[in-house]
TrEMBL record:
Assigned EC number: 2.1.2.3, 3.5.4.10
GO CC term, one of those recorded: cytosol
The family this protein is said to belong to: Belongs to the PurH family.
Catalytic function, reaction form: (6R)-10-formyltetrahydrofolate + 5-amino-1-(5-phospho-beta-D-ribosyl)imidazole-4-carboxamide = 5-formamido-1-(5-phospho-D-ribosyl)imidazole-4-carboxamide + (6S)-5,6,7,8-tetrahydrofolate; IMP + H2O = 5-formamido-1-(5-phospho-D-ribosyl)imidazole-4-carboxamide
Name of the protein described by the UniProt record: Bifunctional purine biosynthesis protein PurH
Keyword terms of this UniProt record: Hydrolase, Multifunctional enzyme, Purine biosynthesis, Transferase
Domain notes: The IMP cyclohydrolase activity resides in the N-terminal region.
One GO biological process term: 'de novo' IMP biosynthetic process
Gene3D superfamilies reported for this sequence: 3.40.140.20, Methylglyoxal synthase-like domain
Biological classification of the source: Bacteria, Pseudomonadati, Pseudomonadota, Alphaproteobacteria, Rhodobacterales
Gene it is expressed from: purH
Top-level division of the source organism's lineage: Bacteria
Domain MGS-like residues, every copy: 1-149
Pathway: Purine metabolism; IMP biosynthesis via de novo pathway; 5-formamido-1-(5-phospho-D-ribosyl)imidazole-4-carboxamide from 5-amino-1-(5-phospho-D-ribosyl)imidazole-4-carboxamide (10-formyl THF route): step 1/1; Purine metabolism; IMP biosynthesis via de novo pathway; IMP from 5-formamido-1-(5-phospho-D-ribosyl)imidazole-4-carboxamide: step 1/1
Length: 528
């Protein structure tokens, strides 16, 4: 690919004329020939720049209120022709097409018109066609052509010309092209989102690449409109699941089912049955068992109160016995990688219960993006696919965990990754026995989980709180010994946490004094 390439001819067509005069003058000073559309040409001439009208190059007047100005083979041929391709060069010569080495375009201010609530016809006239077409042509041919869409790139561009004696590097042209495509994408997103609002009902397609799975009756609350889109990745989960029965899923059902299925997918079927029960996107019971039914029962026994109206996810197909067990209380959704005919038969009597089956489990290590919208922007990050292999776990206390304790610690750690922060998870014999979620204080999470475990023990007629002799996980480090001590007071005998606090020494000393075994993971699992 050509690296340095000269800039001899530029086409400038900008709605926002900020910095135009100086930029035009600087280009002329470097011997660059300027072509321009109507208003831009006027502004450049007013700044003393010599400029040729695009209409003189196309031999067509700008027409239809500016809808057609630069949409011409003389322009797009000059942008798209490969300079080192003999056929392309021959076509240029045959049709009198001159190469254009730089395009400077900023688009009709559609977004500004939207912000000021312009009327429909005005919005339509603010949809730029010729500008994006030139941006895309120039960006495609970035091997030779430069595309500037942002005023702040004028200075960068001039420095590059200065540094390379009127030439630009491939690296710069590639970076400008990437920016350019992001610009047209954002522009079209704005247009299509506005149009979605005009159309009214849920658009079948949205510009973030989603495809409508279903329109929802409402969102998180009845006054919020909502719809559900698949991202086209085909990942096993609620977006691609098959619904066999029950009412239409609600927004909250979908959100909770996703949380349930993503967590249960952490448990490989070859390691035995696992069950997750979710309420309000947090697990209120997670367990493994020798059968699917046992896994469900153990998960249910963690917090029977919260499990009412919950979402159940299984890592193995739903069987008849488990189906019967689940129908013992009101459950909103069951999701599993399959269901036997007999299980479906059991559910058939429960008209409100939704049964979803998936094509296997999701891969918890598969990379992806987590996107969150907030006021005025988007927060984008990698999905939390973090995993700490057993050999990287570090015992930091005098007491070493037994192999049973280590198994429970690792189980608790896996669950904690899926609990809203601050997360504290107590586990005994492959089942959660207390989950503290979403508290602003880690100590409170430890206390709440222990309190719930106490209440469950009473309900089950057990003499001691369920947390007695448990393993406990904390999604982030204990900044002080107090949270750890609450867990010890609840009966925990071993702890897993990331470590890394300024006061790790104090926390380790407290653990040693209490006779706890403590393991550091070196990785945090915040979830907000
Ligand atoms: N139709 C066309 O061929 C066309 N070519 C360029 N434009 C836009 O016209 C604007 C500049 O117009 P002017 O130079 O007349 O101020 C730019 O925002 C540019 O993106 C066009 N306008 C809209 O599509």
């Amino acid at each position: 690919m050509t690296n340095l390439y000269p800039v001899r001819r530029a086409l400038i067509s900008v709605s926002d004329k900020t910095g135009l005069a100086e930029f035009g003058q600087a280009l002329i000073a470097r011997g660059v020939e300027l072509l321009s559309t109507g208003g831009t040409a006027n502004a450049l001439r007013a700044a003393g720049c010599e400029v040729k009208d695009v209409s003189d190059v196309t031999n067509f007047p700008e027409m239809m209120d500016g809808r057609v100005k630069t949409l011409h083979p003389v322009v797009h041929g000059g942008l798209l022709a490969l300079r080192d391709n003999d056929d392309h060069v021959a076509s240029m010569n045959e049709h009198g097409i001159g190469a254009i080495d730089l395009v400077v375009v900023n688009l009709y201010p559609f977004e500004k018109a939207l912000a000021r609530g312009a009327a429909y016809d005005e919005m339509i006239e603010n949809i730029d066609i010729g500008g994006p077409a030139m941006i895309r042509s120039a960006a495609k041919n970035h091997g030779f052509v430069n595309i500037i869409v942002d005023v702040e790139d004028y200075a960068v561009f001039l420095s590059e010309l200065e540094a390379n004696d009127g030439y630009t590097t491939y690296a710069l042209r590639q970076r400008l092209a990437q920016t350019a495509y992001a610009r047209t994408a954002a522009y079209d997103t704005a247009v299509s989102t506005w149009m979605a609002g005009q159309v009214g009902d849920a658009p079948r397609r949205r510009s973030f690449g989603g495809q409508l799975v279903q329109e929802l009756r409402y969102g998180e609350n009845p006054h919020q409109a909502a719809s559900f889109y698949a991202d086209g990745s085909g990942r096993a989960g609620v977006a691609t699941a098959q619904q066999h029965q029950g009412k239409e899923l609600s927004y909250n059902n979908i959100n909770d089912t996703d949380a349930a299925f993503e967590l249960v997918s952490e448990f490989a079927p070859k390691d035995g049955p696992a069950c997750v029960i979710i309420k309000h996107a947090n697990p209120c019971g997670v367990a493994t068992g020798s059968t699917v039914k046992e896994a469900y029962q153990k998960a249910f026994d963690c917090d029977r109160t919260s499990a009412f109206g919950g979402i159940v996810a299984l890592n193995q197909p739903l069987d008849e016995e488990t189906a019967k067990e689940i129908t013992g209380i009101f459950t909103e959704v069951v999701i599993a990688p399959g269901a036997s005919d007999a299980a479906k038969e059991v559910f058939a009597a429960k008209k409100n219960l939704r049964l979803l089956t998936t094509d296997g489990l999701a891969d918890p290590r598969a990379a992806g993006l987590a996107v969150k919208q907030l006021s005025g922007g988007w927060l984008v990050q990698d999905k939390d696919t973090g995993f700490v292999p057993a050999e990287e776990l570090r015992v930091v206390t005098k007491v070493q965990p037994t192999s049973e304790q280590m198994a429970d610690l690792r189980f608790a750690w896996t669950v904690a990754k899926h609990v809203k922060s601050n997360a504290i998870v107590y586990v005994k014999n492959g089942a959660t026995v207390g989950v503290g979620a979403g508290q602003m204080s880690r100590v409170d999470s430890a206390l709440i989980a222990a309190k719930k475990a106490e209440r469950m023990a009473e309900a089950l007629g057990l003499p001691a709180p369920l947390t007695q002799g448990s393993a406990v996980a904390s999604d982030a480090f204990f900044p002080f010994p107090d949270g750890l001590m609450e867990a010890a007071a609840a009966g925990a005998t071993c702890v897993i946490q990331p470590g890394g606090s300024m006061r790790d020494d104090e926390v380790i000393a407290a653990a040693d004094e209490a006779g706890l075994a403590m393991v550091f993971t070196g990785m945090r699992h915040f979830r907000h």
